[in-house]
Amino acid sequence: MELKLDYFKIEYNNVAPAKGKILISEPFLQDAYFNRSVVLITSDQDGFVGFVLNKFAEFSVHETVKGFPEFNAKISIGGPVRVDTIHFIHTLGEAIPESVPLIDNLWWGGDFEHLRKLVAEGFVSENQVRFFLGYSGWDSQQLERELVENSWLVADLNAETIMNSEQNIWKQTLDGLGSKYRLWSEFPENPTLN
């Protein structure tokens, strides 16, 4: 009897990559930036731009950006592109001019100087903003190829989970997607050490 079990093939779930969606890497993706990562897509115009949510830096934004007030909001390595730039997502909405809405209660970017001023004046709490060094980027055909190759699973997350995500968001998100993906989350990073 032949079993038709392919635990590591992504089941098409009718969720296309788009602004506000997340990409969850398959368990064997070995890229240093994307290994067991969750990426928030912030733009789907002429390709895709996003930020890795669970690769945290060990320094704060005021240590990175000259003149930024002391502020202990999370800062992550957003991806391999332009790691000399800083980006942010937030729950401040229209309080930050030029912000781009992503999903309910989550925005991307906006006027950085205005954000700096609000932080300095104490109007922003550390759980309302997340910063990223660099970003992740794909042209539309590149991401499509990676999806066909089963490198990514596309899903949704709410703003609260995105803003409060920790290193283990990859596992937690997969665990919430059913038994097949729970198997992914339990699979050892290096099976030879098991």
How would you explain this protein's 3D organization?
Strands 1, 2, 3, 4, 5, 6, 7, 8 and 9 form a nine-stranded mixed sheet that branches. By secondary structure, this protein is α+β, with helices and mostly antiparallel strands. The chain contains six helices and nine strands. The protein has helices at 61-64, 112-120, 140-148, 159-163, 169-175, 179-186, and strands at residues 22-25, 38-43, 48-52, 75-77, 81-90, 100-103, 106-108, 129-138, 152-155.
Record keyword descriptors for this entry.
single chain; 194 residues; alpha+beta; 9-stranded mixed sheet; 6 helices; 9 strands; 22% helix; globular
Quick overview of this protein structure:
This protein is 22% helix and 25% strand. It is built from 6 helices and 9 strands; from the N terminus they run E-E-E-H-E-E-E-E-H-E-H-E-H-H-H. The chain has helices at 61-64, 112-120, 140-148, 159-163, 169-175, 179-186; strands at residues 22-25, 38-43, 48-52, 75-77, 81-90, 100-103, 106-108, 129-138, 152-155.
